[in-house]
Structures are given as C-alpha cells and as structure tokens.
C-alpha cells in the first residue's frame, strides 16, 4: 500500500533517503493473533518483549527483503542502518543485510517498541477484565495521549523519535538511511516529519494497516523530507510472504503487536 504526500515540517539538512522498516513477523504477532481469534485475555508467550524472536514466516520475510536489497544498484543501497535493539527488529536487519558485510547495523535504544507497562501480554478484553477503570480512562483520553500504568503513550515515543530524527538530519545529511523498528515508532516518525495532527494520525493508523517487514520511504526535496510510499510490500508479495498483523481498534488494547 502506497501513498504520496508533501510534508510540512523539517526544512534544513536531510538524509537523501529515509526508509523505515517495520520488523518482520514475530512470534508475538502470531500469539496476539491467536489470542484475538480464541478470545483469550492474555498472550501465550514466555519471553520478555525485547527478546521476542521472529517467527518462521518472519525469517522468510526478512530473507525476501534481503533479496530485494541485493537487486538494488549501488546508488540505491543503504549507507547507514539503524535498528531497535529488540530482537525482532535487529534480527530482521541482520538477515536483510547479511550480504553487506561492510554495513554495520547500529542499534539505538530510542527506536525500541512502545512500553506497554502493566498491559504487556494482555489483550483488549484482558485489559478490561484486569484494569476496567484504566480501559475507561484510555477510551476517554484517546490512543495518542493515553499512558498505561508503568508504560508509554504514543507521544512519549514521539519524544524519543524527535531526538533520533534530529541526529539523523545532523549526522547523515545526504545519506541513504534505513531504520528497522516498530509500528508505533514508524507512526511517530510520520507524526513528526509530516506535522500531522491527532485526527489525521489516527485516521492513517485506522485505515492503512502497516504490515510486517513493509517499507515506508521518504526522500529529500530541498532539505524537506517528502513521503514517497507508506507500508510498501511489493518485495514480500513477489515471494508470497506478505501478511499484516494489526491490533483491533478497540478502546483498549495492550497486546504486543509492534
């Protein structure tokens, strides 16, 4: 799925290209889908969120991205690669870039998944059962600003990403930068780069699901980053390994899905 948009914010220095890669399918995505399908309150997982690995399909998706990268000419390949330190993102990067032995994957903790705090491993129904008052409060405050107990709001994530984007602009101007990360982080990049308001951001999140191992690409236009495509998955569809895992848009969801 692709769209084009000119953006309102961020004039000045810019990378020549900024590609945001959502990590390939993880066992957490599979567990979240199974929990929703079966109406469970909690995900069947025994790993910390940072350690949750890729599924078998996820490894195939990362390999499909590697195949795509190998077909790019030298002028289109990444110069700089940043990654969330979480296993599902870092492993996607390592598999995708395996043949580029001279290209180091730089792990940056600011690119980590949103911390769900007390809601980790809970489904929407599980949150309503265990934290009914919080579920009600989240519904009133809204997805962008609500912070679960001990966790982060989307705006908390956006604060991290403002810092990352500032560093990318100052340190990698004119470079092709690839970032391997999570759904909420990619949406935070869109919030900041495009100057989106709350309603528009949530409309995109609701109507344009971001698939695993998809690519969101910005290009420099006279110092301004311009959106070229969002959630592109042609490289996955060509090898029949495309699948989208998204949370249902209910008043309260907390399962790992990023």
Key features?
258 residues, alpha/beta, Rossmann fold, 6-stranded mixed beta sheet, 38% helix, globular, disordered N terminus
How would you describe the overall organization of this protein?
The protein has one domain (17-237): Phosphoglycerate mutase-like (Rossmann fold). 38% of the residues lie in helices and 14% in strands. It has 9 helices and 6 strands; from the N terminus they run βααβαβαααβααββα. It has helices at 27-38, 56-70, 87-96, 124-130, 132-141, 154-171, 183-194, 198-207, 234-237; strands at 17-22, 80-83, 105-107, 176-181, 215-221, 224-232. The radius of gyration is 18 Å and the shape is globular. Residues 1-10 and 247-255 have low confidence and may be disordered.
Strand order of the largest sheet: 3-2-4-1-5-6
Question: How many discrete structural domains?
Answer: 1
CATH class: Alpha Beta
**N-to-C SSE string, H for helix and E for strand:** EHHEHEHHHEHHEEH
Strand content: 5-15%
Overall average pLDDT: 91
Major beta-sheet overview = 6 strands, mixed
CATH architecture, please?
3-Layer(aba) Sandwich
Radius of gyration: 18 Å
Distance, first to last CA: 18 Å
Number of helices, where a helix is a run of at least 4 consecutive DSSP H or I residues:
9
Query: How would the global form be characterised?
Result: globular
Low-confidence stretches: 1-10, 247-255
Q: How many E strands?
A: 6
Regarding quaternary structure, what we see is single chain
Structural class call reads alpha/beta
Q: State the CATH topology.
A: Rossmann fold
């Amino acid at each position: 799925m692709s769209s084009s948009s000119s953006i309102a914010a961020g004039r000045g220095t810019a990378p020549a290209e900024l590609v945001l890669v959502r990590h390939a399918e993880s066992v957490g995505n599979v567990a979240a889908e199974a929990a929703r399908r079966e109406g469970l309150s909690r995900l069947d997982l025994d790993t910390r969120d940072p350690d949750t690995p890729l599924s078998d399909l996820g490894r195939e998706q990362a390999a499909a991205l590697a195949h795509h990268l190998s077909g790019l000419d030298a002028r289109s390949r990444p110069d700089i690669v940043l990654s969330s330190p979480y296993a599902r993102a870092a492993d996607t990067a390592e598999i995708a870039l395996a043949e580029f032995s001279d290209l180091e994957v730089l792990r940056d903790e600011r690119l980590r998944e949103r911390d769900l705090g007390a809601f980790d491993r809970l489904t929407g129904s599980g949150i309503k059962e265990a934290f009914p008052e919080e579920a009600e409060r989240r519904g009133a405050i809204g997805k962008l600003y609500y912070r679960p107990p001990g966790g982060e709001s989307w705006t908390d994530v956006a604060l991290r990403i403002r810092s990352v984007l500032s560093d990318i602009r100052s340190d990698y101007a004119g470079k092709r930068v690839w970032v391997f990360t999570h759904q909420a982080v990619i949406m935070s990049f869109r919030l900041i780069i495009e100057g989106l308001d709350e309603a528009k951001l949530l409309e995109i999140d609701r109507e344009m699901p971001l698939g695993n191992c998809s690519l969101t690409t910005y290009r420099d236009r006279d110092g301004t980053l311009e959106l070229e495509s969002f959630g592109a998955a042609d490289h996955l569809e060509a090898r029949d390994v495309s699948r989208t895992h998204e949370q249902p848009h209910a008043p309260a969801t907390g399962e790992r899905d990023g």
